[in-house]
């Protein structure tokens, strides 16, 4: 297991962590100030400053990307299937332009939440079928672009509205069906927040292996959690044994960034420099 | 699958659903007014009126029980192991006195939340080991009392503070290890709220079979969920396909009550009769 205690060269910042404090260009400046080497930007943050400016800013700052957030939301009613396909192809193009190593996929929940306006359904089995079909189509496109796709299993609390792929096993089962050759073009993005509770976690990380482990995200689970979406904790403030999870992915050969992704009304209310200083300190001590 | 549309003879009321509107005796009176045949009372509600009075009130009203809530909270530090054992034995005794068909078990999360005052830990694997050990001890006691134990897998959102048995598979694996002979003394209580998201749900219900299916609970998952503990929905107001879940347990031979258990700041704020009328109507139409 790599020693993170003396520097933060393997810290990547998911830019949603400070999305309320500034635009993407300001976040990139702050990363430069704090010696942060990598980011994972969100599509809306890129769009807000323009793709070309974002590409230049990343290049000028000498930043790497640890991923691009996010593709997916594959579930919809029939009238929106074209929108789903086109939207995800654009996402691949943007990720390519930015030099991202993978697109992180939040696959979608029930169609009425995934693609608002879609006819309402309670059929989660059908939703899962639709996800696999749309993902297969996106994978064809991503392969041509040589841009790997990383399925992010989301905590079951988000099964209805964000992603009904909710365990590492379920994500890896999809990988095995759509990419049995383990081409390196399809894998998982594992965020400790979503998977820490899973009794099969360690077995599934071992099953994933290096070629399926495309991204590793960290934050913490707070008790109590006051907001189901926007009350993630800073690493060390909650109950997750983060080092054990990192040890497990590194035992498989994962040698990429530990990406910090915190959606938090609390941390969004603090100055950007304070947030980044805390991220760096916790990266050294808790991650 | 049984037809519930014309009456509510298979509706049981988990008394937490109206815990803020009255004490257990008042709830029992209200069940009589509404022709509800069964309840699942909570230990604190029984204690508040006294066990003997509760036993008499249940008997005088001709009520059945569909379970007794709840045993468990098995995780603690060493200094509280005796408390855990004694507390759970008392729970079995009370259930026996009340004529409950099973004790519902919420097994506990990390020790500091399960038994407050216990030393803090992030070791969920250790917590799970401790649960199995304490459950084995309780099972010996419950067998002598001929009182079955029903492990309730809780939604992963409660893994830290309430139960780190979070899937039906995990609960059934414990059943198989502690009761390989399928004696009928150990099984599961399945609440759609906790398990609806699980991609393995239907397979695991089939695996459980009739002798492991000791209780079936219903409510609904709301989007958005505004409170992680106390914002369960009335059946029909959320996204859960309840009928499919009931069809699956009944296909295994389950023929017991559909127990309504709603923790909801919203419904706790309404008159008891309104809540019960709504439960009965939704039982006929949505469950």
Automatic annotation (TrEMBL), chains A, B:
InterPro entries: IolE/XylAMocC-like (IPR050312), Xyl_isomerase-like_sf (IPR036237), Xyl_isomerase-like_TIM-brl (IPR013022). The keyword Repressor does not apply. Signal peptide: none annotated. Gene3D superfamilies: Divalent-metal-dependent TIM barrel enzymes. One of its GO terms (molecular function) is isomerase activity. Keywords: Isomerase. Pfam families: AP_endonuc_2 (PF01261). Residues 28-268 form the Xylose isomerase-like TIM barrel domain. This is Sugar phosphate isomerase/epimerase.
């Amino acid at each position: 297991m790599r020693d993170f205690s003396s520097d933060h060269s393997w810290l990547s910042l998911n830019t949603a962590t400070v999305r309320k404090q500034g635009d993407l260009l300001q976040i990139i400046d702050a990363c430069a100030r704090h010696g942060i080497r990598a980011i994972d930007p969100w599509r809306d943050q890129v769009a807000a400053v323009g793709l070309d400016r974002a590409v230049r800013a990343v290049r000028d700052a000498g930043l790497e990307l640890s991923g691009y957030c996010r593709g997916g939301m594959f579930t919809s009613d029939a009238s929106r299937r074209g929108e789903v396909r086109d939207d995800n192809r654009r996402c691949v193009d943007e990720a390519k332009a930015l030099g991202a190593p993978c697109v992180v996929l939040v696959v979608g929940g029930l169609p009425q939440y995934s693609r608002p306006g879609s006819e309402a359904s309670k059929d989660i089995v059908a939703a899962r079928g639709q996800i696999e079909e749309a993902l297969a189509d996106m994978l064809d496109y991503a392969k041509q672009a040589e841009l790997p796709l990383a399925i992010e299993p989301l905590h079951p609390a988000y099964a209805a509205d964000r992603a009904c792929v909710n365990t590492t096993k379920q994500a890896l089962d999809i990988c095995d069906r759509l990419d049995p050759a383990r081409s390196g073009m399809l894998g998982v993005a594992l965020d400790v927040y979503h998977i820490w509770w899973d009794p099969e976690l360690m077995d599934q990380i071992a099953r994933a292996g290096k070629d399926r482990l495309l991204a590793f995200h960290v934050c913490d689970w707070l008790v109590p959690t006051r907001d189901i979406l926007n009350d993630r904790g800073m690493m060390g403030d909650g109950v997750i044994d983060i080092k054990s999870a990192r040890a497990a992915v590194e035992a498989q050969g994962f040698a990429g960034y530990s990406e910090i992704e915190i959606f938090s009304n609390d941390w969004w209310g603090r100055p950007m420099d304070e947030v980044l200083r805390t991220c760096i300190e916790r990266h050294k001590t808790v991650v």
